[in-house]
Amino acid sequence: MSRAVVVVVLLLLAGRAPAQDTTAATLRRARDLYEQLELERALPLLREIVSPAWTFDVTAAQRVEANLYLGAGLVLLGARDSAVTHFRAALERDPFTDLDPSRFTPAQLDAFQAARRAVFRIGVRPVVATRLDPRTDRMAFTVVATHAAAVRCEIRAAEPAIRFPLLVGEITGLREIEWDGVLANGQLAPSGRYAVVLIAESPSRPGVTDSANAYFDVQQEFAALEDTLPDVQPRDLRPERYGKEVTGDVLKGFGVAVGALLLADVASNRDLGQSRDMAAIVGAAGITVGLTSFFAHRGRTHQANVTANEQQRTQRTVANDQIRQRNAARLAQTILVIRPAAGSGP
Fold first, then answer.
1. First vs last Cα of the chain: how many Å apart?
2. pLDDT at 35
3. Is residue 11 part of a domain?
């Protein structure tokens, strides 16, 4: 890069930094001049900042401060009406605006109160991040009304659909409204996005209304929960009625008969004589036992299996009850993690 290009870049950077800080620097200079009571030099600077012709960026807070110092300076110069106009401009942008009694004169405070009575504005401060224990803690929403206002303060959410009032009444000036994190139905607020909404009407000026809101996110925090045991499947249970096993008893009886006959053939000889009579007796006995078992048990309840199945189901039920109790104890210790959210709506 050539030396000439470097010089141009440095000049551009040098020119950009003051431009970016022009509003803050001008406001700081005007404030210093005001503190030195050099009002004839401070007021023109403040008027430049609030003028539509001002070409540099001005934040809402900077515009509010400039109007406040303009109003304060004009009171000292005896221009009370103009001062009230600038105080009103500050309050319309930020209803939380106030004057410190230790730093401003009674005349300035009186003019500011006149502006407050003339403006009907309400506000809700952004929610402060916090960890809320619903059993012992409360969080506070800070609201304000420039003068007496009939208000309704609500908690709202879209998913799930929630809407219930925290306060219905009248407020004047600054007010804190507490919430324990519990819904109107007594349940703990589920995780999600919420809004605290303030709706107001001026009793002294019927039909004049205003509204304000602040968004926040709620996250339930609790210890990990256990899963309950699954239902007992049919394949895990013993048969509760006699079925195929009874047929098996009959087949066993026939098997005994056939086996007895086969053994009689093998064991028979001339010296011992024929043993078929004994085999026939054994075989008949086997068949009789099998048929007796078949007719005695067919379609009937297998009580031993029923008892074993009931024990299995009972053990599962007891285990799941214990798991639910442990989970309930963990949920009872839930903490709500509250964080401010961007104003995109719940």
1. 53
2. 95
3. no
Residue 5 within any structural domain of the chain: no
Q: pTM above the 0.85 mark?
A: no
Give the whole-angstrom CA distance, residue 54 versus residue 304: 94
User: Residue 279 is part of which domain span?
Assistant: 234-331
pLDDT band, residue 20 (cuts 50/70/90): very low
On whether both 23 and 109 belong to a single domain, the answer is yes
Q: How far is CA 62 from CA 16, 41, 49, 159, 301, in A?
A: 20, 18, 9, 37, 88
| 139, amino acid identity | M
Residue 338 forms part of a structural domain: no
Question: Does position 63 have pLDDT exceeding 70, yes or no?
Answer: yes
Q: In this structure, what DSSP letter does residue 235 have?
A: G
Smallest CA-to-CA distance from 43 within 82, 17, 4 is with: 82
Q: Does 18 have pLDDT greater than 90?
A: no
pLDDT of residue 315: 81
Residue with tokens 């009959």, as numbered in its chain = 250
The span from the CA of 200 to the CA of 212, in Å, is 9
Q: For residue 276, what pLDDT is reported?
A: 54
What pLDDT score does 6 carry? 41
- Give me the CATH number covering residue 61: 1.25.40.10
Mean local confidence (pLDDT), 42-53: 95
The tally of domains found in the chain comes to: 3
- Reported as half-sphere exposure (CB side, CA atoms, 13 A), residue 314 has a value of 6
Question: In terms of Cα–Cα distance, which of 164, 139, 141, 142 is closest to 152?
Answer: 164
Distance in angstroms (rounded) separating the CA atoms of residues 91 and 144? 11
Domain with 183 in it: what CATH number?
A: 2.60.40.4070
Task: Give 257-298 pLDDT, tens digit per residue.
Answer: 555 455 455 555 544 445 555 555 555 555 565 545 545 555
Amino acid making up residue 196? V
196 shares a domain with 245: no
User: Is 224 contained in some domain?
Assistant: no
Do 101 and 127 lie in one domain? The reply is: no
- State whether 132 and 45 are in the same domain: no
